[in-house]
Amino acid sequence: MVERKKWSEEFSEWYNDLIESVGIIDKRYPVKGMNVWLPYGLKIMRNIERFIHSEMDRTGHEEVLFPALIPETEFQKEAEHIKGFEDEVYWITHAGLDPLDVKLILRPTSETAMYSMFSLWIRSHADLPFKVYQIVNVYRYETKHTRPLIRVREISRFFEAHTAHDSYEDAERQIKEDLEIFDRLAKFLALPYIISKRPEWDKFPGAFYSLGAEIMMPDGRTLQIGTMHNYKQNFSKAYDIKYETETGDHEFVHQTTYGMSERLLAAVIAVHGDDRGMVLPPTVAPIQVVIVPIPKKNAEADVFAYAREIAEELRNVGLRAHVDERDIRPGRKYYDWELKGVPLRIEVGPRDVEGRKAVLARRDTLEKRVVERDNIVGEVKKTLDAIHGNLYSRAKSFLDEHIKRVDTIEEAKEVFEDRRGIVEIPWCGSDECGLKMEEELDAKMLGIPYPEEKAKAPEGKRCPICGREAKFIARFARTY
Ligand code: A5A
Ligand code: ZN
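Above: the input record for the complex with zinc ion. Below: its predicted structure, written as tokens.
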């Protein structure tokens, strides 16, 4: 058994080692920033996607699939959007030996692929709200340090929802719904998070405003795991997406988008992990319960049959259970499944068979408890729920401990020197002061707390840069 890096001390190394040794992805593929998904990683990701599909379904979004290639002419229609993406797109300039008349890009996101079609599909107010989504791969020539699942050049599981509305108010209602969906997803993943409204200089290219959802990584840096954008009519004007109103006028639609990716999986791995490896929330674990039979020499009882029976009973109530019948020592099995993050282990030896008992070992707390064989289904369900709750609450404490309110640049600097995290500081609201703070703190402004009622600076607070009265509380962090 190899020496493992510590989650709490060397997070970056821990993460890189872990995702390979556990079988999430293989990063040895010979294109930088593009990785191979391995079966165990893909199974967890599929469980996350299944939840997203069900949320989309429940909120009336229809699934679509657009081509991955976009003509240069379409890509160039919205000026801000091109400016934001031009140094990140992969170009296709040739087909076979022939140069293309109209060059193509590999989608970095699908606004410019979808919106010329929206302009054909959306005709009347009766077509609105119009809500579609897809989960596809997209390509971004990222120049910042690439990291598996976190910053990749082929995003394999890019979720994007695109909506069109008859008014700004209805688009705002959509953003609210997006936040509710996000909240349910985050609970499903046991991930506490914060929402910030991005400053002007960090909006999504083409957006009227952007919201970002951040989680706290073990090293005190934040990771953005989802964004929602209100585009107002910026894209509909560029792509001529109009509808006929009830009175026969023609108006441009209001649009929103919502995006997430395999960063969700990175967040689950990073936030819940520990020095022994991954700890998966039962909701996404490919195996929720692993049963390890412990045969003893000269014991009569059939621990294997007993283990299989338990597994069968758990499967019958919809739980994902697995019996580890490999011919290796139990200690080795414990080590493997702990590394892989299986939330609950059941150990059964000859004495358990005779006494009709079983030992439950929780992955999160490492506690062991003896239960009656006849109550096993109830005990397992109860324990899995407790594990999920505990993962959430310990991550929530970690997040809360890493948000610090300060009044001065010096105090903010101290936070970043010490244990990092998120600093909340009064801000006058000017771009100039915001950018100055980013520079002095060597950190990014995540934005102001959202909804904006929470963003107001308390009475009497001053902007530490210009000394004027502060309008907002602004959040800063070192980010992934
Ligand atoms: N059209 C909108 C939705 C959009 O593209 N927004 S976005 O650029 O912010 O991307 C949405 C989400 O995708 C981000 O919040 C982030 O979680 C994820 N993402 C962006 N770039 C990524 C990358 N290079 N690798 C992995 N995930 C990425
Ligand atoms: Zn100021």
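Notes for the reader.
Residues 109, 111, 140, 142, 151-152, 155, 160, 204, 224-227, 229, 257-261, 263 surround '5'-O-(N-(L-alanyl)-sulfamoyl)adenosine (ligand 1) (CB under 6 Å).
The first strand starts at residue 25 and ends at 26.
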